[in-house]
Amino acid sequence: MHPTTSRRDFLDFCGNSLTGTALASLLLRDKIATADSVPGAAMGVPHLPAKARRVIHLCLFGGVSQIDSFDYKPELAAFHGKSLQSEERPATFFNQIGLIRKNDWEFKQRGNSGLWISDLFPHLAEVADELTVIRSMVADSANHTPATFEENSGFRLNGFPVMGSWISYGLGCETDNLPGYVVLPDARGLPAGGSINWSNGFLPAQHQGVTFQTKGPIIHDLFPSRSVTSEHETASRNLLSHLNRSHLHAAGTDDSMSARMKSYELAAKMQLAVPMVSELNQETAATRNMYGLNNEDTTDFGSRCLLSRRLLEQGVRFVQLYSGGSFGSPRINWDGHEDMKRNHSREALRLDQPVAALLKDLRQRGMLDDTLVLCTTEFGRTPFTQSGAENIGAGRDHNMYGFSIWMAGAGLKHGISYGSTDDIGWKTVEKPVHWHDYHATVLHLLGIDHERLTYYHNGIQRRLTNVHGEVVHEILA
Predict the structure, then answer these.
(1) Would you say 357 and 301 are in contact if contact means Cβ atoms under 8 Å apart?
(2) Are strands 420-421 and 54-60 parallel, antiparallel or unpaired?
(3) At what angle are helices 340-364 and 299-313 packed, to 10 degrees?
(4) Closest listed residue to residue 26, CA positions, set 221, 255, 240, 251
(5) Could you tell me if residue 12 is inside a domain?
(6) 249 shares its domain with 127
(7) What is the dihedral angle through the alpha carbons of 121, 196, 42, 29, rounded to the nearest 10 degrees?
(8) Which residues form the domain of 410?
(9) Which of 150, 183, 147 is nearest to 62 (CA)?
(10) Domain CATH number, residue 65
């Protein structure tokens, strides 16, 4: 250290730098009861030949309407304006059950596959032959917060590791300069539950999702608040390394301490790697335009999609992007209670072009052959409107009984749909897929047996799929 640097200044530097942030995060964690042969790493993975090496997960928060996007119901128009004919009244979030409303966007068959996609996503329609649509998803909650937890972790209660953390735990990272699991939130706000949606739960802290900011500096406190020469920086890190070695020598080998030391090393390397990977101006003008960076409506999500591709290229294992933020008036997510056309038109405009560009870009670079792209929403929306019993309202309520997601990339059959809902798109009637089945399938594509990826916690060998889950083999190539 510089001779004029006081102990207080040195501790202040550590506390306000990325290194200090890593230390604080790790010190807040309880000590892990059991340790693996390599701290924080699963044993015996991969269990089977992997089709995919890495994942981009698009989370569309708020509840995307399946009957207005990927689940074409040609008979729905005939029911428009009629009451729901059912002895069983549905349990919805607000229980304001109006009349049936037809789809607000027209559907067409797209690509060589003839996959039905609505005009809500005209750019995604151009890459229909890359998509694998599951039209028979079911969930256990119609409430945003527990439903989003279940989408990410398989459990409706918080405190459980999310899929990105399980994958980081199972497979690690292909680089030592960046985290294995990176989260890119919506610039307008965080989803319900906030950072719990990328929590490591009871897994080692190194597997928690690392949030990159979408406004201002990509990571806060990446650099010290005042100028520090390279000599002073090196001296500070040498001192820290010496203190760590002294502590290990005195206390004996400690997996938690070793993990902390690794976090310091990662923090130092990120100071070089993050500015490089986040410099989107290194891309050609054609690439930036393809992602919509020249358009005010698409530049936010387009930047995050392009950054995701660059992170994968640098060895990041799992990147998660959120579309939709906190609640307010108007809602800045996909929660179309009041006016579906206004809500979904606004949200689809932000991501349709960037996501289609991401798939095209990955394909032309040869990356889609070993990359898995996932696009999910916590639940769908009702085919009847949210209004009085005799009204055709403009909005739709939450629907956990049958909704759609899509996947693309490695190991999948492309240009197909799987499962089905009833004639009006309300309930799944054929080949239901629960979140446990979805998680089991994603892990399978990554070479992981979901029943064997476990972690001992509170007397139980925990896993992402709890005691459930079946791989959906029919969608696999």
Answers:
(1) no
(2) unpaired
(3) 30
(4) 255
(5) yes
(6) no
(7) 160
(8) 47-218+285-475
(9) 147
(10) 3.40.720.10
Using the 3D structure, point to which of 259, 277, 295 is the last residue of a domain.
277
Residue 170 lies in a domain: yes
- Residue by residue, pLDDT tens for the chain (477 residues) are 444 444 444 444 444 444 433 433 333 333 332 223 233 357 788 899 999 999 999 999 999 999 999 999 999 999 999 988 665 666 678 788 889 999 999 999 999 999 999 999 999 999 999 999 999 999 999 999 999 999 999 999 999 999 999 999 999 988 888 999 999 999 999 999 999 999 999 998 889 999 998 776 676 666 566 677 878 777 877 887 777 777 777 766 555 666 566 665 666 666 666 777 888 999 999 999 999 999 999 999 999 999 999 999 999 999 999 999 877 656 799 999 999 999 999 999 999 999 999 999 999 999 999 999 999 999 999 999 998 767 788 999 999 999 999 999 999 999 999 999 999 999 999 999 999 999 999 999 999 999 999 999 999 999 999 999 999 999 999
How many domains are contained in the chain? 2
Of the CA atoms within 13 Å of residue 322, those in its CB half-sphere come to 32
Would 40 be classed as within a structural domain? no
172 and 121, same structural domain?
yes
Give residue for tokens 């550590």: 14
Q: Residue 369: which of 477, 258, 242 has the closest Cα?
A: 477
User: Can you give the pTM of this predicted structure?
Assistant: 0.85
Residue 303 sits in the same domain as residue 452:
yes
